[in-house]
Amino acid sequence: MEDQKIYIVGAGIAGLIAALELEKAGFCPIILEATEKEGGRMKTDAQEGFLMDHGFQVLNTAYPEAKKYLDFQALNLKTFDPGAVIFDGKDSFIITDPMRNPLKVVSMAFSKVGTFLDKVKMFTLTQELKKKSNEEIFNSPSIPTHQYLKNFGFSDLIIDNFFKPFFRGIFLEKHLNTSSRMFEFVFKMFALGHAAIPEKGMGEIPKMIRRQLSKTQIYFNSPVREIQGNVIELENGDKLEADRIIIAVQPDRVMKQLQGQFASPRQVINLYFSLQKSLLARPMIGLLTGDRLVNNIVFMDDVSKAYAENGRSLLSVTVLESKLGEKELIKAVQDELEEISGVKSEYFKFVKAFPIAYALPHVDDLKYAIPFTECKITDQVYLAGDYLLNASINAGMTSGRIAAEAVIHSYMPTH
Question: Residues in domain Amine oxidase (predicted)?
Fold first, then answer.
């Protein structure tokens, strides 16, 4: 098997897991990665004593695939407190644990966010989803999340104050048009697990998978121009002949015949600011209600001290969409931060902006898994990536594993 030339395009989570599974089966794959480091959409930059993830991301500790491939202890995971700090115009209040133990939620704060009946509904939904398997969730009828919440009987108060700002930040779209399947899956994962980040940034996750590889070669700064048949043409003009190819990026980038087959990905702008000290002083996400530029904020060093080791606090700000240029956007965000916190806008020192054109794939028909026969395009070419299933770290890992299974199966003697 070692003489088989198996190329994987992309060293994101899906590509790395595919390589790991191929190694277990005795293959020595080669990964072609366009950038200078592994991780795909999951990268962390170090600058001025700060660690900055490319986009605010968390790992949910309940993800089944993550438990399989990652050593949570070695990542030294730092967890968020369940719940959120809600910024509602001039006021802010905390709701603790809305998905874990809704009936224990402090009634005073909750009454500003939702009704007593909302608490009961939250509890009912949590219990129902804990009993539902992930496969059942993804086989359920699909309706837009906002419709699902209304149908379930949640009040507009809790939809506007909690569900919208919380799930907008996860789905990266403003109107909660994302499928109810994704909502149920994410809600269940938050009810069962914790949102967490590795102590030294989300980039530690792909690094950990890469360290498990022993027979895989990775060529960095090797962007692929096009794949035709079993030939890979690199941007530099080199041509590589392959026995099998796993495309672990969205395939319309490298296969001309697939252009126009995919919906535009979800975008996000992630800005970092430093402040003398955190406004929240607790490892929690801050949600802004209403129609604002900023969707959510997190002081990263409240969750992991390693994110800011220069005596200042590091604020991650998520903006879903904006037509403003960078300078105007920074100023507008600083003004909004002043408005919700009372801290003068100039105290929020701008550090860096990450405009992320491909933050999440836009998936219409969400699935939990697919049979390995479905990721095969031709006898030589196979697909991996969360765009095949649903937009999550769990799906990225699942898709990599399934693509590897398909390739391994293609070498089985047929009787």
Answer: 13-408
